[in-house]
Amino acid sequence: LPTAVSHLQAGLLLSEQLGRAEDEARLRHRLGLALWQSGDPGGASLQLDRAATLFESIRRETRGSAEGRLSLFDLQTACYQSLQRVLVLLGREHEALVVAERSRTRAWLDLVQEREGTRAKRGVSRGSEDPCPRTVAEVERIVTRQKASVLYFSLAAGYLYSWLILPTKGVVKFHQACLAEEEEEAEKPESEKGSGLLENHIQAVRESLGVEVGEDCSKEGEAGGGVWANHMEELGDKLNQDTDRSGFLRMVNRSSKLNASSYSLSSLFSVGSVGGLSTASGLTQSRGGSSRSRGRAAWQGPSALRHLYQLLIEPMEDDLPDTGSGDLVLVLEGDLYLIPFPVLKGTNCTEFLCERFSLMVTPSLTSLKTRHPKPRHGGLLDPESRALVVGNPRIPTSVTEHWGWGELPHSEQEAGIVGEILGCPTLTQSEATKDAVLAALGDAEAVHLACHVSWQLSAVIVSPSELMETSNNSRRYSIHSDTIHEEDDVRSEATTVELPSLSDFLLTAADLLNLKLSARLVVLSSCYTRDRHGAATSDGVIGLSRALLAAGAQCVMVSLWPVPDTAVKLIMKAFYSSLLQGSRASRALGEAMTAVQTTKYFQHPANWAGFVLIGQDVKLTHKVAMMGQALREIIGAPDRCRDALRVTLHLVSNWGVG
């Protein structure tokens, strides 16, 4: 090691003299690792920090190929992960938090630069002035402005780091846990350790929820499910790369993969049995009574549920606010997105986490301080033009037979319920075309998409503009044993079928990324996709949600697994009704979960715990919602507002808000 350090230092000096910045960055990275291994973490932190900064500037200034920029992005990710570990070893956990946040915002900053050009490069764009915190004090100020407790998680070098940040109090606690399997991972270097412990717990919890591999999917998995997954990943990458000029989605997904462990989680979310035998068995146990406490007693969950609680929540338990005292923001990355946080609870705790706090998820703290434009029309939602509700897009038979996306009559009913609550028309069947959805998305403040979602393709399935089984736009797709690709003419022994172009009926993450949205809330209700397309992956959830957030949406709600049809309608009706009573999204979802778990037949967490809110905690600006907000505030202080309440009720009765 001393010899290696000496040679690297000599090479570094030469690269600086020659002004070769990329060589300097690479050498500093290697020198940092060598110093770390040689027992000099202080020197390692200096070199790794400098290397990451150099990679950042080089990557943004380079005019080379996208692959070259992505290679630099990977090296920068490795620098940030190693730097976090070194800083923790040095006892500088607060600085490690800032580094973790810097790592989270790189792809977003690249997107801002690509969209705003030279103004973003000079740092003078109003929306992008020094957006990433540079000190822990700046991080703490963001949390104080949000008035919500924050649990910040980072996966780096085989470790889970977590910080609890409270408004006005700052960082009150730090915790670290090694995620590597002791026997298998002990001999690996720090930078190569995996997170098998976390994945095993996730798998066990998902299986206990009835989200397990069904019979058909198991057979497909044995016969080549892995090949299918690879095909879908390759095809999804191609679809998104064609229109993702900044490389935002590829960077987000690559960062997630670098933090993941050695094996894929895609097989954990086959949902063939949700609402079927495995879930029904849990529901049968809970039919002894309709109270929430009896439902909880019927489903205690596996030991892995308690292990996840011990890993993620228990270290901060003593410093968390009292039960029911506010909001809890979870800053997540990678496979952490797939954990059902609402049902986490400790050994001696009788309440689920969603009963103790209103939960929100966010990819970074920087995204919380993003300033969104004020709504038009004086802040009121025009129900005829400011909401978009889509359900059961009509899919050509050829597409259904080839890809497996069938009719969704229950999603059409769900769209009708949501449209009635919001007071807006719905797009269903052949009206729900890609062109129609794209045309309405930009101006909608509330968006509800009850459609098939392919998490592997990071795409929402809508109706093509032309429903002919064969048209001038049709193309052939060849399916080989090792690849799937789209081409104008296939002359091989591969199986071919005539299909509309994928771009005609797939609303991809890249399509969404190229929009300018004003939506406060976007709901991706993929609860009805029960084939392997519905197997949620961390990449798919992160890709779609971050594309919507980057395009301007403030909050995105997704479902991590299919839910029985009746339970979905109950959740959505309670959720939107609560929103129209003035609740914020997190509280509305918590109330909806409570409403469903207190019913006789849907107490099992598989029916309600899979819904996640990502982004900012928003309120609707629908006129009824705004009235509900005003009434909540008035009722909260009746002694001071009695006369105002009388006037308001009189106006409401005369207006006829229905």
Q: If you had to describe this structure to a student in words, what would you say it looks like?
A:
The protein has 658 residues and is of the alpha/beta class. Helices cover 48% and strands 13% of the residues. It contains 25 helices and 17 strands. Helix 2 (21-37) runs antiparallel to helix 3, helix 9 crosses helix 14 (303-312) and helix 22 packs across helix 23. The longest helix has 27 residues, at 215-241. Mean pLDDT is 77; it is low at 118-128, 182-194, 213-224, 260-297, 377-385 and 468-495.
Task: Tag the structure with descriptive keywords.
25 helices; single chain; five-stranded mixed sheet; alpha/beta; 658 residues; 13% strand; six-stranded mixed sheet
What general form does the structure show? Answer: globular
| Helix/sheet category | alpha/beta
Q: What is the count of β-strands?
A: 17
Largest sheet: 6 strands, mixed
Could you outline the blueprint of secondary structure elements for this entry?
Blueprint: H1 2-18, H2 21-37, H3 41-61, H4 66-89, H5 93-116, H6 118-122, H7 136-146, E1 149-156, E2 159-166, E3 170-178, H8 182-185, H9 196-208, H10 215-241, H11 248-259, H12 277-285, H13 292-298, H14 303-312, E4 327-331, H15 353-356, E5 358-362, E6 387-393, H16 397-403, H17 409-422, E7 426-429, H18 434-441, E8 446-450, E9 453-454, E10 459-461, E11 475-479, E12 484-487, E13 495-499, H19 502-505, E14 506-508, H20 509-513, E15 521-524, H21 538-550, E16 555-559, H22 565-580, H23 585-597, E17 611-615, H24 623-635, H25 638-655
Helix pairs in contact: 1-2, 2-3, 2-4, 3-4, 4-5, 4-11, 5-11, 9-14, 11-21, 17-22, 22-23
